[in-house]
Amino acid sequence: MNTPPASTDVLAQLRAVLGDRVDTDHSALQGARADKSGHAAAGMPLALVRATSVSDVQETLRIASATGTPVVTRGAGTGLAGGANAGTGEIALSVRGMDRILEVRPDDLLAVVEPGIINADLNAALAEHGLWWAPDPASRAISTVGGNIATGAGGLLCAKYGVVRDAVLGVDLVLADGRLLSLGHRTVKGVTGLDLTSLVIGSEGTLGVVVGAILKLRRLIPGEVCTIAATFPDVRAAAEASAAVTASGAQPSIMELMDAASLSAVHALLQLEPPTPGAAQLTIQTDGPAAAGEADAIAAVLNAAGGTVAVSHDRAEGERLLAIRRAMHPAMETLGTALIEDVSVPRSALPAMFDEIARVEREHGLVIPTVAHAGDGNLHPNFIFDATPDENGVIEAPEYIWAAADDLFRAALRLGGTLTGEHGIGVLKKRWLADELGDAQWELQRDITRVFDPAGILNPGKVFAW
Asked: Which superkingdom, per the lineage (predicted)?
Protein backbone atom coordinates (compact mmCIF):
# COMPACT_ATOMS: atom_id res chain seq x y z
CA MET A 1 0.00 0.00 0.00
CA ASN A 2 1.41 3.40 -1.02
CA THR A 3 0.99 5.76 1.91
CA PRO A 4 0.96 9.55 1.27
CA PRO A 5 3.87 11.41 2.92
CA ALA A 6 1.61 13.22 5.42
CA SER A 7 0.10 9.91 6.49
CA THR A 8 3.59 8.41 6.80
CA ASP A 9 4.52 11.23 9.18
CA VAL A 10 1.41 10.65 11.32
CA LEU A 11 2.15 6.93 11.48
CA ALA A 12 5.75 7.64 12.45
CA GLN A 13 4.62 9.90 15.28
CA LEU A 14 2.08 7.37 16.52
CA ARG A 15 4.63 4.54 16.44
CA ALA A 16 7.26 6.63 18.18
CA VAL A 17 4.95 7.09 21.16
CA LEU A 18 2.74 3.99 21.11
CA GLY A 19 4.94 1.33 19.53
CA ASP A 20 3.21 -1.91 18.61
CA ARG A 21 -0.15 -0.60 19.82
CA VAL A 22 -0.34 0.97 16.35
CA ASP A 23 -1.74 -1.75 14.07
CA THR A 24 -1.64 -1.37 10.27
CA ASP A 25 -2.35 -4.98 9.40
CA HIS A 26 -4.78 -5.17 6.49
CA SER A 27 -7.28 -7.38 8.31
CA ALA A 28 -7.29 -5.08 11.34
CA LEU A 29 -7.92 -2.01 9.18
CA GLN A 30 -10.61 -3.83 7.23
CA GLY A 31 -12.38 -4.74 10.47
CA ALA A 32 -12.30 -1.14 11.67
CA ARG A 33 -14.29 -0.01 8.62
CA ALA A 34 -17.54 -1.74 9.58
CA ASP A 35 -20.01 -2.44 12.35
CA LYS A 36 -23.05 -4.70 12.75
CA SER A 37 -25.21 -2.39 10.61
CA GLY A 38 -23.81 -3.96 7.45
CA HIS A 39 -22.44 -0.58 6.40
CA ALA A 40 -18.71 -0.05 5.89
CA ALA A 41 -16.80 3.20 5.44
CA ALA A 42 -15.21 3.93 2.07
CA GLY A 43 -11.47 3.34 1.91
CA MET A 44 -9.05 2.17 4.58
CA PRO A 45 -8.24 3.89 7.86
CA LEU A 46 -4.67 5.02 8.38
CA ALA A 47 -4.13 2.87 11.46
CA LEU A 48 -5.89 1.07 14.26
CA VAL A 49 -4.57 2.25 17.62
CA ARG A 50 -5.22 -0.35 20.32
CA ALA A 51 -5.23 1.83 23.43
CA THR A 52 -4.61 0.18 26.80
CA SER A 53 -4.52 3.29 28.98
CA VAL A 54 -5.79 6.84 29.30
CA SER A 55 -2.31 7.99 28.35
CA ASP A 56 -2.52 6.07 25.05
CA VAL A 57 -5.75 7.87 24.20
CA GLN A 58 -4.32 11.27 25.13
CA GLU A 59 -1.16 10.76 23.07
CA THR A 60 -3.20 9.62 20.07
CA LEU A 61 -5.43 12.68 20.22
CA ARG A 62 -2.52 15.07 20.72
CA ILE A 63 -0.91 13.76 17.55
CA ALA A 64 -4.23 13.78 15.70
CA SER A 65 -4.94 17.35 16.79
CA ALA A 66 -1.50 18.59 15.82
CA THR A 67 -1.67 16.97 12.38
CA GLY A 68 -5.38 17.51 11.67
CA THR A 69 -5.98 13.76 11.40
CA PRO A 70 -9.55 12.53 11.97
CA VAL A 71 -10.16 10.02 14.78
CA VAL A 72 -12.98 7.49 15.06
CA THR A 73 -13.37 5.81 18.45
CA ARG A 74 -14.35 2.13 18.51
CA GLY A 75 -15.35 -0.40 21.13
CA ALA A 76 -16.58 -3.84 20.10
CA GLY A 77 -17.98 -2.68 16.75
CA THR A 78 -21.53 -3.82 17.54
CA GLY A 79 -23.21 -0.54 16.56
CA LEU A 80 -26.12 -0.46 14.13
CA ALA A 81 -25.82 3.03 12.65
CA GLY A 82 -22.29 3.09 11.19
CA GLY A 83 -21.23 5.49 13.92
CA ALA A 84 -17.84 3.88 14.66
CA ASN A 85 -16.76 3.04 11.12
CA ALA A 86 -13.35 4.46 10.15
CA GLY A 87 -12.43 5.23 6.54
CA THR A 88 -9.78 6.83 4.36
CA GLY A 89 -7.09 8.74 6.25
CA GLU A 90 -8.71 8.29 9.67
CA ILE A 91 -7.24 6.86 12.87
CA ALA A 92 -9.43 4.13 14.32
CA LEU A 93 -8.93 4.42 18.08
CA SER A 94 -9.95 1.21 19.83
CA VAL A 95 -10.60 1.36 23.58
CA ARG A 96 -11.63 -2.31 23.69
CA GLY A 97 -8.40 -3.16 25.56
CA MET A 98 -9.29 -0.79 28.39
CA ASP A 99 -11.60 -3.26 30.11
CA ARG A 100 -10.87 -3.10 33.84
CA ILE A 101 -13.26 -2.63 36.73
CA LEU A 102 -11.38 -0.06 38.77
CA GLU A 103 -13.65 0.12 41.80
CA VAL A 104 -16.88 -1.36 43.18
CA ARG A 105 -18.60 0.35 46.11
CA PRO A 106 -21.59 -1.69 47.32
CA ASP A 107 -22.22 0.86 50.10
CA ASP A 108 -22.53 3.70 47.58
CA LEU A 109 -24.07 1.56 44.81
CA LEU A 110 -21.48 2.61 42.26
CA ALA A 111 -18.69 1.18 40.16
CA VAL A 112 -15.85 2.84 38.27
CA VAL A 113 -14.96 1.09 35.02
CA GLU A 114 -12.97 1.50 31.84
CA PRO A 115 -14.93 1.77 28.57
CA GLY A 116 -13.88 -1.51 26.95
CA ILE A 117 -15.50 -3.85 29.45
CA ILE A 118 -18.29 -6.01 28.02
CA ASN A 119 -21.72 -5.30 29.51
CA ALA A 120 -22.39 -8.94 30.44
CA ASP A 121 -18.89 -9.39 31.92
CA LEU A 122 -19.43 -6.36 34.12
CA ASN A 123 -22.69 -7.75 35.45
CA ALA A 124 -21.17 -11.18 36.05
CA ALA A 125 -18.54 -9.50 38.25
CA LEU A 126 -21.07 -7.28 40.00
CA ALA A 127 -23.28 -10.25 40.85
CA GLU A 128 -20.63 -11.40 43.32
CA HIS A 129 -21.40 -8.22 45.27
CA GLY A 130 -25.18 -8.64 44.97
CA LEU A 131 -25.29 -5.79 42.45
CA TRP A 132 -26.07 -5.17 38.78
CA TRP A 133 -25.93 -2.43 36.13
CA ALA A 134 -29.40 -2.07 34.64
CA PRO A 135 -28.88 -1.20 30.92
CA ASP A 136 -29.68 -4.38 29.02
CA PRO A 137 -29.18 -4.03 25.24
CA ALA A 138 -29.86 -7.12 23.13
CA SER A 139 -26.11 -7.04 22.39
CA ARG A 140 -25.15 -7.16 26.08
CA ALA A 141 -23.02 -10.30 25.60
CA ILE A 142 -20.83 -8.58 22.98
CA SER A 143 -21.17 -4.79 23.42
CA THR A 144 -19.00 -2.59 25.62
CA VAL A 145 -20.06 -0.21 28.36
CA GLY A 146 -18.27 2.59 26.50
CA GLY A 147 -20.24 1.81 23.37
CA ASN A 148 -23.45 1.71 25.41
CA ILE A 149 -22.60 5.19 26.70
CA ALA A 150 -21.64 6.54 23.27
CA THR A 151 -24.96 5.53 21.74
CA GLY A 152 -27.17 6.08 24.78
CA ALA A 153 -28.19 2.42 24.59
CA GLY A 154 -31.43 1.00 25.94
CA GLY A 155 -32.55 -2.61 25.86
CA LEU A 156 -35.16 -5.03 27.10
CA LEU A 157 -35.27 -3.85 30.73
CA CYS A 158 -35.31 -0.11 30.20
CA ALA A 159 -39.10 0.35 30.48
CA LYS A 160 -38.79 -0.31 34.21
CA TYR A 161 -35.12 0.29 35.00
CA GLY A 162 -34.17 3.06 32.60
CA VAL A 163 -31.62 3.58 29.86
CA VAL A 164 -27.89 4.33 30.01
CA ARG A 165 -28.48 8.02 30.75
CA ASP A 166 -30.25 6.95 33.97
CA ALA A 167 -27.35 4.73 35.05
CA VAL A 168 -24.21 6.88 34.63
CA LEU A 169 -23.10 9.35 37.29
CA GLY A 170 -19.98 10.64 35.58
CA VAL A 171 -17.44 10.07 32.82
CA ASP A 172 -13.77 10.77 32.22
CA LEU A 173 -13.49 12.36 28.77
CA VAL A 174 -10.41 13.04 26.65
CA LEU A 175 -10.96 16.04 24.38
CA ALA A 176 -9.75 16.32 20.81
CA ASP A 177 -6.57 18.12 21.94
CA GLY A 178 -5.72 15.45 24.55
CA ARG A 179 -6.97 17.23 27.67
CA LEU A 180 -8.61 14.98 30.27
CA LEU A 181 -11.86 16.09 31.94
CA SER A 182 -13.65 14.40 34.83
CA LEU A 183 -17.36 15.09 34.43
CA GLY A 184 -20.21 14.36 36.81
CA HIS A 185 -19.93 13.16 40.39
CA ARG A 186 -19.98 10.17 42.73
CA THR A 187 -23.01 11.42 44.64
CA VAL A 188 -26.64 10.53 44.00
CA LYS A 189 -27.45 14.23 43.74
CA GLY A 190 -25.31 16.88 42.04
CA VAL A 191 -26.36 20.00 40.15
CA THR A 192 -23.13 21.99 40.09
CA GLY A 193 -22.81 23.62 36.69
CA LEU A 194 -24.16 22.23 33.44
CA ASP A 195 -24.82 18.49 33.16
CA LEU A 196 -22.04 17.67 30.73
CA THR A 197 -22.22 13.96 31.57
CA SER A 198 -25.70 13.73 30.07
CA LEU A 199 -24.49 15.70 27.07
CA VAL A 200 -21.70 13.19 26.43
CA ILE A 201 -24.04 10.19 26.74
CA GLY A 202 -25.36 9.49 23.25
CA SER A 203 -22.92 11.90 21.58
CA GLU A 204 -21.43 9.08 19.46
CA GLY A 205 -17.79 10.08 19.81
CA THR A 206 -18.27 13.62 18.51
CA LEU A 207 -17.39 15.41 21.78
CA GLY A 208 -14.46 13.37 23.05
CA VAL A 209 -13.32 9.86 23.97
CA VAL A 210 -14.86 8.30 27.07
CA VAL A 211 -12.01 6.64 28.99
CA GLY A 212 -13.79 5.90 32.27
CA ALA A 213 -17.24 5.96 33.80
CA ILE A 214 -18.84 6.11 37.23
CA LEU A 215 -21.84 3.81 37.01
CA LYS A 216 -24.98 3.91 39.13
CA LEU A 217 -25.76 0.37 40.33
CA ARG A 218 -28.77 -1.46 41.73
CA ARG A 219 -29.00 -4.29 44.20
CA LEU A 220 -30.04 -7.63 42.76
CA ILE A 221 -33.80 -7.93 42.91
CA PRO A 222 -35.18 -10.33 45.52
CA GLY A 223 -38.18 -12.52 44.82
CA GLU A 224 -39.24 -14.57 41.84
CA VAL A 225 -39.41 -13.79 38.13
CA CYS A 226 -42.62 -14.55 36.25
CA THR A 227 -42.79 -14.75 32.47
CA ILE A 228 -45.93 -14.33 30.41
CA ALA A 229 -46.20 -15.44 26.79
CA ALA A 230 -49.25 -14.22 24.92
CA THR A 231 -50.10 -14.80 21.27
CA PHE A 232 -52.51 -12.70 19.24
CA PRO A 233 -54.05 -13.17 15.79
CA ASP A 234 -52.15 -10.19 14.36
CA VAL A 235 -49.61 -7.57 15.32
CA ARG A 236 -52.11 -4.75 15.79
CA ALA A 237 -53.98 -6.80 18.39
CA ALA A 238 -50.71 -7.47 20.18
CA ALA A 239 -49.79 -3.76 20.07
CA GLU A 240 -53.21 -2.79 21.45
CA ALA A 241 -52.74 -5.34 24.25
CA SER A 242 -49.33 -3.92 25.14
CA ALA A 243 -50.82 -0.42 25.27
CA ALA A 244 -53.57 -1.77 27.52
CA VAL A 245 -50.96 -3.22 29.89
CA THR A 246 -49.26 0.17 30.12
CA ALA A 247 -52.59 1.95 30.63
CA SER A 248 -53.49 -0.46 33.44
CA GLY A 249 -50.68 0.94 35.58
CA ALA A 250 -48.67 -2.29 35.56
CA GLN A 251 -44.91 -1.93 35.19
CA PRO A 252 -43.37 -5.15 33.90
CA SER A 253 -39.60 -5.35 33.76
CA ILE A 254 -39.72 -6.58 30.16
CA MET A 255 -42.44 -6.33 27.50
CA GLU A 256 -41.31 -7.42 24.04
CA LEU A 257 -43.45 -7.70 20.91
CA MET A 258 -42.59 -9.77 17.83
CA ASP A 259 -44.64 -9.57 14.63
CA ALA A 260 -45.43 -12.57 12.45
CA ALA A 261 -42.47 -12.22 10.09
CA SER A 262 -39.89 -11.86 12.86
CA LEU A 263 -41.44 -14.66 14.92
CA SER A 264 -41.42 -17.00 11.92
CA ALA A 265 -37.76 -16.25 11.12
CA VAL A 266 -36.62 -16.85 14.70
CA HIS A 267 -38.57 -20.11 15.00
CA ALA A 268 -36.93 -21.32 11.78
CA LEU A 269 -33.46 -20.35 13.01
CA LEU A 270 -33.94 -22.08 16.37
CA GLN A 271 -35.65 -25.08 14.76
CA LEU A 272 -38.83 -24.56 16.78
CA GLU A 273 -42.33 -25.53 15.72
CA PRO A 274 -43.59 -22.93 13.22
CA PRO A 275 -45.88 -20.33 14.79
CA THR A 276 -49.48 -19.84 13.71
CA PRO A 277 -49.48 -17.91 10.40
CA GLY A 278 -49.99 -14.19 10.99
CA ALA A 279 -49.73 -14.50 14.76
CA ALA A 280 -47.78 -12.00 16.87
CA GLN A 281 -46.38 -12.56 20.36
CA LEU A 282 -45.87 -10.56 23.53
CA THR A 283 -43.26 -11.79 26.00
CA ILE A 284 -43.55 -10.07 29.37
CA GLN A 285 -41.66 -10.47 32.64
CA THR A 286 -42.38 -9.26 36.12
CA ASP A 287 -39.86 -9.33 38.95
CA GLY A 288 -39.45 -8.58 42.62
CA PRO A 289 -41.53 -9.54 45.67
CA ALA A 290 -44.83 -8.70 43.91
CA ALA A 291 -43.98 -10.51 40.66
CA ALA A 292 -46.67 -13.18 40.91
CA GLY A 293 -49.50 -10.77 41.63
CA GLU A 294 -48.37 -8.42 38.86
CA ALA A 295 -48.14 -11.31 36.41
CA ASP A 296 -51.69 -12.41 37.22
CA ALA A 297 -52.98 -8.85 36.75
CA ILE A 298 -51.18 -8.49 33.41
CA ALA A 299 -52.43 -11.89 32.25
CA ALA A 300 -56.00 -10.74 32.95
CA VAL A 301 -55.45 -7.64 30.78
CA LEU A 302 -54.03 -9.77 27.97
CA ASN A 303 -56.88 -12.26 28.15
CA ALA A 304 -59.39 -9.42 27.96
CA ALA A 305 -57.54 -8.13 24.88
CA GLY A 306 -58.03 -11.47 23.12
CA GLY A 307 -54.68 -13.10 23.76
CA THR A 308 -53.86 -16.74 24.34
CA VAL A 309 -51.90 -16.45 27.57
CA ALA A 310 -49.51 -18.68 29.51
CA VAL A 311 -47.75 -17.70 32.76
CA SER A 312 -44.55 -19.36 33.95
CA HIS A 313 -42.88 -19.05 37.36
CA ASP A 314 -39.80 -20.97 36.16
CA ARG A 315 -36.73 -18.75 35.59
CA ALA A 316 -35.25 -21.23 33.10
CA GLU A 317 -38.45 -21.24 31.07
CA GLY A 318 -38.47 -17.46 31.16
CA GLU A 319 -34.93 -17.30 29.79
CA ARG A 320 -35.89 -19.76 27.05
CA LEU A 321 -38.74 -17.49 25.99
CA LEU A 322 -36.51 -14.43 26.03
CA ALA A 323 -33.90 -16.29 23.98
CA ILE A 324 -36.45 -16.30 21.16
CA ARG A 325 -36.50 -12.50 21.25
CA ARG A 326 -32.72 -12.19 21.59
CA ALA A 327 -32.27 -14.35 18.46
CA MET A 328 -33.87 -11.68 16.28
CA HIS A 329 -30.66 -10.28 14.77
CA PRO A 330 -29.14 -13.62 13.70
CA ALA A 331 -32.55 -14.65 12.38
CA MET A 332 -32.64 -11.58 10.13
CA GLU A 333 -29.21 -12.49 8.75
CA THR A 334 -30.71 -15.75 7.42
CA LEU A 335 -33.15 -13.74 5.29
CA GLY A 336 -30.57 -11.55 3.52
CA THR A 337 -28.80 -8.29 4.27
CA ALA A 338 -30.71 -6.49 7.02
CA LEU A 339 -30.93 -2.75 7.59
CA ILE A 340 -31.91 -2.89 11.27
CA GLU A 341 -33.70 0.33 12.12
CA ASP A 342 -34.79 1.98 15.34
CA VAL A 343 -37.68 4.40 15.86
CA SER A 344 -39.68 5.25 18.96
CA VAL A 345 -43.22 6.53 19.40
CA PRO A 346 -45.36 7.28 22.45
CA ARG A 347 -46.55 3.97 23.88
CA SER A 348 -50.19 4.78 23.14
CA ALA A 349 -49.23 5.26 19.46
CA LEU A 350 -47.71 1.77 19.11
CA PRO A 351 -50.78 0.28 17.34
CA ALA A 352 -50.86 3.24 14.93
CA MET A 353 -47.15 2.78 14.19
CA PHE A 354 -47.71 -0.86 13.28
CA ASP A 355 -50.51 0.32 10.97
CA GLU A 356 -47.97 2.65 9.34
CA ILE A 357 -45.46 -0.20 8.93
CA ALA A 358 -48.17 -2.29 7.25
CA ARG A 359 -48.91 0.64 4.92
CA VAL A 360 -45.22 1.04 4.05
CA GLU A 361 -45.03 -2.69 3.32
CA ARG A 362 -48.03 -2.48 0.97
CA GLU A 363 -46.97 0.67 -0.83
CA HIS A 364 -43.32 -0.30 -1.25
CA GLY A 365 -43.83 -4.02 -1.88
CA LEU A 366 -41.75 -5.16 1.09
CA VAL A 367 -41.98 -7.38 4.12
CA ILE A 368 -40.52 -5.53 7.13
CA PRO A 369 -40.06 -7.91 10.10
CA THR A 370 -40.45 -5.80 13.23
CA VAL A 371 -39.87 -6.29 16.94
CA ALA A 372 -40.59 -3.73 19.63
CA HIS A 373 -39.65 -2.92 23.17
CA ALA A 374 -43.36 -2.49 23.72
CA GLY A 375 -42.93 -1.26 27.27
CA ASP A 376 -41.42 1.99 25.99
CA GLY A 377 -42.62 2.30 22.39
CA ASN A 378 -39.25 1.53 20.75
CA LEU A 379 -39.58 -0.40 17.46
CA HIS A 380 -36.93 -2.16 15.37
CA PRO A 381 -38.17 -2.58 11.78
CA ASN A 382 -35.84 -4.67 9.62
CA PHE A 383 -35.47 -3.88 5.92
CA ILE A 384 -34.26 -7.03 4.15
CA PHE A 385 -32.53 -6.92 0.76
CA ASP A 386 -30.00 -8.80 -1.38
CA ALA A 387 -26.66 -7.05 -1.77
CA THR A 388 -23.16 -7.62 -3.07
CA PRO A 389 -20.26 -5.57 -1.65
CA ASP A 390 -18.65 -3.12 -4.08
CA GLU A 391 -14.94 -3.05 -4.92
CA ASN A 392 -14.22 -1.39 -1.56
CA GLY A 393 -16.21 -3.98 0.36
CA VAL A 394 -18.99 -1.45 1.06
CA ILE A 395 -22.58 -2.69 1.23
CA GLU A 396 -25.09 0.04 0.54
CA ALA A 397 -28.82 -0.36 0.93
CA PRO A 398 -30.48 0.21 -2.46
CA GLU A 399 -32.53 3.33 -3.07
CA TYR A 400 -35.86 1.51 -2.88
CA ILE A 401 -35.01 0.42 0.67
CA TRP A 402 -34.12 3.98 1.69
CA ALA A 403 -37.35 5.24 0.11
CA ALA A 404 -39.32 2.83 2.30
CA ALA A 405 -37.23 3.74 5.36
CA ASP A 406 -37.80 7.44 4.68
CA ASP A 407 -41.56 6.83 4.59
CA LEU A 408 -41.40 4.89 7.86
CA PHE A 409 -39.20 7.46 9.64
CA ARG A 410 -41.54 10.29 8.70
CA ALA A 411 -44.51 8.27 9.91
CA ALA A 412 -42.85 7.91 13.32
CA LEU A 413 -42.23 11.65 13.48
CA ARG A 414 -45.88 12.39 12.56
CA LEU A 415 -46.97 10.21 15.49
CA GLY A 416 -44.90 12.29 17.90
CA GLY A 417 -41.96 9.90 17.82
CA THR A 418 -38.23 10.06 17.20
CA LEU A 419 -35.75 8.73 14.63
CA THR A 420 -33.82 6.64 17.13
CA GLY A 421 -34.51 5.31 20.58
CA GLU A 422 -31.17 3.64 21.25
CA HIS A 423 -29.03 2.94 18.15
CA GLY A 424 -27.97 6.52 17.49
CA ILE A 425 -27.73 8.57 14.29
CA GLY A 426 -24.24 7.60 13.12
CA VAL A 427 -23.88 7.87 9.36
CA LEU A 428 -27.04 6.07 8.32
CA LYS A 429 -29.62 8.55 9.69
CA LYS A 430 -27.81 11.87 9.51
CA ARG A 431 -29.86 13.04 6.51
CA TRP A 432 -33.06 13.01 8.62
CA LEU A 433 -31.69 14.62 11.78
CA ALA A 434 -32.62 18.20 10.89
CA ASP A 435 -36.15 17.03 10.01
CA GLU A 436 -36.67 16.05 13.63
CA LEU A 437 -34.65 18.76 15.35
CA GLY A 438 -35.46 21.67 13.07
CA ASP A 439 -32.76 23.79 11.44
CA ALA A 440 -32.18 26.10 14.42
CA GLN A 441 -31.67 23.29 16.93
CA TRP A 442 -29.57 21.31 14.44
CA GLU A 443 -27.25 24.31 14.04
CA LEU A 444 -27.08 24.84 17.81
CA GLN A 445 -26.20 21.22 18.50
CA ARG A 446 -23.55 21.22 15.79
CA ASP A 447 -22.08 24.42 17.27
CA ILE A 448 -21.87 22.70 20.67
CA THR A 449 -19.78 19.91 19.17
CA ARG A 450 -17.37 22.53 17.83
CA VAL A 451 -16.81 23.91 21.33
CA PHE A 452 -15.49 20.47 22.32
CA ASP A 453 -13.77 19.81 18.98
CA PRO A 454 -12.98 23.09 17.15
CA ALA A 455 -11.13 21.43 14.27
CA GLY A 456 -13.83 18.82 13.70
CA ILE A 457 -11.50 15.81 13.87
CA LEU A 458 -13.70 13.61 16.10
CA ASN A 459 -15.86 11.18 14.15
CA PRO A 460 -16.25 13.47 11.12
CA GLY A 461 -19.02 12.72 8.65
CA LYS A 462 -21.28 11.33 11.37
CA VAL A 463 -24.39 12.69 13.10
CA PHE A 464 -24.27 16.41 12.18
CA ALA A 465 -22.76 16.10 8.71
CA TRP A 466 -25.03 16.76 5.75
From this structure: Bacteria
